[in-house]
Amino acid sequence: MSKKQQLPQVPDGVRYARWSGHALGVILIGLTLLIVTRGLDGVFDGIKISYFIFYSIILNLPFQSMTAARWKWMYGLLLFCSIAFVFLMVVSVLFNYMAAADQGERLGVPGFEGTLIFLALLQVPAVLFQRKPDLID
User: Mean pLDDT, to the nearest integer, of 99-103?
Assistant: First the structure.
């Protein structure tokens, strides 16, 4: 797409969804710092913090200003990474439940993790509609 060609106006809701993706990236970096300061409890924590940093970078890429060919590859990577993030969070919740069960405790509903999953999955359509707002209609 040439620079002279005018891009359609991106709806406010899509813009807010992308802002939530940037905020999710910042939250994941904060969680990484929190995990590191508390100390790593095993291999899974190392995998988790590595993935959080990688996914934060992917979430904050300038998707709207990429060339069409690069956008397709990065969008595919975002899609794959968002799905992998969901699996990572589900496994993390399962490990937390097992650890609590070993101590004789019971955890409540994983609301924070559910919110992170929602924000991660929101990025896939948000990036698509940010690039191609005419698909919304």
Answer: 86
